[in-house]
Amino acid sequence: MRSAPLVRNVRLDACVADRREARAITGRDLHSYLRRIGLEAAIADGPADVGLVRTVVAAQIASVPFENLDIHRGIPVDIEPAALVDKLVGRRRGGICYEVNGLLTLALRGLGFDAHLVGAEVLTDAGYGPPLGHVVLVVRIDGHPWLVDAGFGGEALVEEATDGDPGAGTAYDVRFESGSAYRTDGVLRPLADFVAMAHWHSTSPGSRFTRGIVCSVTRSDGRYTLSCALGGDYRLTITGENGRETRELDDADVVEVLRREFGVALADPPRPRDVGAAARL
């Protein structure tokens, strides 16, 4: 299940030069990506239309988890294209927004789309978070820009931008029915622009990703989320048409649930690391 987005545009005061790039995954890597998300390679021969984007996004969020397990294993996020393909496709893992949306961008380009990245600030209880704290796609289909997002903790977005261009100076406020929200910055960027923030999210006690573990997929029957807060127990939450069901898991359960529900094979479940402990000494 995906929350339906509500989009409202806000005009930026000044235009800035975009820094678009054209790197893509093609050939064998593209076919491996399609197999990874459960789609036939023949889909690449069809028209590059919004239907294909919706199909790819739905397939990716159902099979490539939004997860931060490596951060709590002491492994910082690496968003080089080769690293994304190796981890998310070859090793069948997931990642945080820079990883899953980075991979999606590379794949959509390989499928013939004009797809690029823009930064976003996530709305928190204290206001908007840091610039480039999130990353979203701008995909042009038949000359019209669409905002696309497969990396917001299980929520997804495929929405036409009808009031200004989100890749040419127009910022968009995006709010999901769950209440989660962010504001895009209107600037097309290469993936390299997000390296510093990916490292910050991997290592800073101020990052929401270092405060606990999350692993989530959204399938046709609902959203499955494995979570564990600092000092807490693992929980599996299933949110579907019949409401929400949550149960606590022991470590043996976690290994099996990761394998069965998320396709992640780990010998032992990571425990949340308190990365702020050293700063408090």
TrEMBL record:
Domain of life of the organism encoding this protein: Bacteria
Pfam family, one: Acetyltransf_2
Family assignment from sequence similarity: Belongs to the arylamine N-acetyltransferase family.
The name this protein goes by in its record: N-hydroxyarylamine O-acetyltransferase
